[in-house]
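User: Modeling request: complex.
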Amino acid sequence: MADADEEAIRATTTEAPQIETDLSDETQDFRLLNHLNFLSDTSSASLPRRGEKDFEPNPTEFQADVLSASRGAMHNALAHPRIHHPKTQVVGIYAPDGPTPPPQAMVDEKGLGVSSDYCVCVPVPKGQYFKTIGQADRWNRVWLLPEEAMYLMERGSLDIKWPRELSGIDADDVNEPLIPMSLQAAYACLLGRSGLTLERYTVFTGLRRLGYAVVRASGWDDNAQAEDSKNEINKHAYTEPQQRGPGLAGIIGRCFAWLDDPFGTSSTAAGPIVGCGIHRNYTDVYRKLATIPWYDPAKAETRDPLDTDAPFRVIFHVYKPSTPIKKSAWPTPDFRIAVVNAREQTSIPTLAQIGALLESTPLDPPRGEKMDRLMYMRLRHGYRNVVLAVVDQGVTSFLRISDAAFGKEKLYENKGPPTGPKRGGNFRPKKR
Amino acid sequence: METSSLQPKAGPRGKRGARPGRPNYRHIHRHPLPVNVLSVPPVIPHNPLSIISVALSYLTFLISPPRQEVYSAYFDSATSSIHVTDERAIKALWEMGFFGKGTLSRSEPSWLEREKKRRGLLGGSTSEEATRKRRTERRELKLERARVEKVAIEERLKAEAAAKESGDVLPAAEGSTIGEKFSVKKAMEARYRQSRSQTPMNGDVSAPTEPPLTPNGKSVRFSHVVQEKEVVSSSAASLQLPDSVLDEDEAEDAVLENEEHLQISNEEAFFLAYSLGVLQVYDREENKVIPTSSLFPLLCNHSQFPPRTATAELKPDDPFAMSYVVYHHFRSLGWVVRSGVKFGTDYLLYNRGPVFSHAEFAVIILPSYSHSYWSETEERREYTTAQQARSWWWLHCVNRVQAQVKKSLVLCYVEVPPPAASSDDIGALISRYKIREFLLRRWIPNRSRD
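Assistant: Request completed. Predicted assembly structure:
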């Protein structure tokens, strides 16, 4: 018996291919669910941590026990009854034709105060979701956008009912209960409404579930165009190759240039750019070498968010859970997101598309003591930034793109080589 | 340059410990570019003497200008590559600006040194050997980890079998998994400390000796094989004192021909020849110097295979022209630019040079055709669309690789100008291109929450 087991070990260790472990896979040890008291006590805020995981099967009963315990814990957690208490139930009514006033009320010239994109009405809003979701009209009813209604419905926090007119109930019979809408019906009715594609919904609901507040930005409507379209790249944002101007400064400059290079050996036409003479220091050499124009993001004008090409335009503003939010006056977003369907837009953006997208975001230069100190961090942060959500058949990859102005960091002005040990690769212990 | 600079200087004690000292790279690579720089005494306006001294130094320059060294390389048209064979030029180009790559080495041309060491003529070790040694150690440790894990499983099986026979119940499968996880990182750390405490410091007795302890205070056991090997290698390292480096150079050179030369990329060669004027490129067949004005079209024609004929018109989006523009741009900012082919990118950017730090940025060159010329006809529009097309999958692949090797990905768009009337003025030609860089990295919503 023991021999057979040893054979099995050898077989598994030699034949099993090396399993690539990616930490972002975030496999959870479900046994931890047993220790959680969220099933009985909702006030506890602790989240499950990741446990250790065996990557190869072995014939020990120990491993088998661990596995069955994990399975048991998962089933236990799933089997826990989830009850919707009638007191906390939130009901929404589908409005296929957009926001309408309540039956008795009169609509005056002020209108409803709600955009026509909203399509689910919640007469009695309660619960924490409405802090960041929906918009109230003059009668204190909250209207929801299709993605918001779908998200709440999928969470089980909202019941959507068919309106009386569509369900064939006598409109005047107030006591007759409304017919609930199924999830399938909600997908059919709400997806595709007012520019909501499945890709946009995937991104919205994914970020929402992670705790972010997500709102539509002005670029939501693909067809919306800016009134004065620049439709070209910010030309003046590129630096000019150096030239010596006229006037006294130019004469003095020429004078010094002659001192540097008295025989006129320096030439950009046939080289050498730096000349054959003697240079006083390397900074001068590098200055002479700067002949290629580069884009300076700080000089570029910010464009209208609508002056961009769909799908490379910001359609969501995203707020971290910690950002205080007032629905009447949304603060500056923490992230701006453009959603791309990788099956429709199959190639990566061209410079015109991505340049316009970045120029439509506000200037956000690297600031702070840390940024001043660390050049790499400055470069990585950039002057403007945007997040691209590339959705490929339901799989979302988020890419943060920022304008890095390498030309603004004159590396040659830094004194000496970088300090600190060469990281990675060879092992070195920490300094004590 | 001087022989003294090759003498390895011991790093700061306590940080490097008993390792053979690294060469003083700050001194060897003190010139960032292979051009002469003479410091002129500063002008102090209220001190007439300083003006006189400045004038004097200028005068001496005018009377006897110090010569700028010009190195030579040859162009091989069959392989479209440029080679430097002169020993002195190889050394100068590597030390001042890290140009080129040894044809038999990973980057620095070190074949001769390695060969000498292999034949037991030199002490010390090259970077290739250090890497090989590290990889062997790592592999041994991984084998050791596998062994430890297997033993733990066997023990567990035995215990289970015994428990089954006696009818006992083993402790439930709650809590810890089998044994303790064997961490390669911890083992490397422990081994490093161990080697330090075993090897006597060079002429230094005051070094603290300590038992091989991991930070948690747990000692890690090694198999006998590993431990013996460790002792041998560390004592061998301590015997090879770095003092014996390079004293019988001439005697060995007679026996050992250097089979290696330096290959410089076409962009590097053009930068050295055109921008700095320190390189002359010879045509191999005709044995004549290629003037800079015809070097540019030549290298452009050789940017594809098979090379275009010399009479062909230069395309503005020629791969060589675009990659040279990017190379020149980053060089002019002070970065050391080297090929990024090993990470699937066009360039890697080093701060000061590869011996000082790892590359922080990996650059990808992408063409852009925003000029109205390129959208004038249907044919041109189709051409530019095809030229700009890159798939999302490709981008994700490159991005994930860079994250794995801890580099930041830079998308470097080059604005392609319409075709130029003439290509005589290279300066005017290359300054028609425009560069815009973007940094791209994965955004992970789970970790950006606060």
